[in-house]
Amino acid sequence: MSTHEVRRRAAPHFIDRATVIGAALQVFAESGFHGASMRGIAAVAETSQSNLYNYFDSKVALLRFVLETTSRELADALEAGDADGEGEPSARLVRAVEGYVHFVTANPNASTAGITEVRYLEGEDRSSVVAERDRAEAVFRRIVEAGVEAGEFDVADIGFATRAVVTLCNSMSGWYRADGPLGPSEIARLQADMALGLVRSRSRCAAEGDVG
User: Fold this and answer.
1) Rounded CA gap, 20 and 26, in Å?
2) Which residues of the chain have pLDDT under 70?
3) How do the domains of the chain map onto residue ranges?
4) Quick one: fold of 59-210?
5) pLDDT, position 9
C-alpha cells in the first residue's frame, strides 16, 4: 500500500452512518427543515459541507435517509418485541408501548424530527418513510385485533383504536425532556396505562404494574 493510500484512508473526511444520522436529527429537531442547512449539519458532524454532499445530493435526500432509517429501527424493535404473538393481549400491548417509549427516550431527536419534518417529503421520499411507520402501526393493530377477538379489549373500531394508541406514543415528541422529572420506566408505565384505557382493557389494573 502506498503512502498516498494510507493518507487518503486516514484523512478526517469520512463520516460514519451514526454520525450523519445524529447530526442531521439534531439540526432538524432544533431548527426545522427550513432552518436547517447542509453547512450546519456538516458542522455538527465535524466534516465539510462538500464531504456531506458526497453522500447526499440535497437536504431532502438527507432528511429522507434519517427519517427512513429511524422509522425502520423503531418498526424492527416493535416487531421483534411481539414476534411470537404470544401472551395476553394486554401484556403484549404493554410491551409494545414500553418498546416505543424506550425508543423515543433513547432517540428524542428522531421522534421530534420524525413527527414534525416528514411533511417536507413528497412522492417516493415520503412513501418510503410511511411504509416503515405502517409496519410499526401494524404491530399495534395486530395486538388490538387479538384483544378484541379474545374479548379482552372493548373498542368501537379497531383501526381508530389503533391510531389512538399510536398517537398517544407519538405525542411524546411534543413533551418529553431528558431532564424531566420522570424517567423512561415511569413514563412507560404511565403511557401503557393510558393505552390500556384507550382500548378499555379488562385487565388494565392487573397489567398496570407489569411495566418496570
Assistant:
1) 10
2) 1-14, 205-212
3) 59-210
4) Tetracycline Repressor; domain 2 (1.10.357)
5) 37
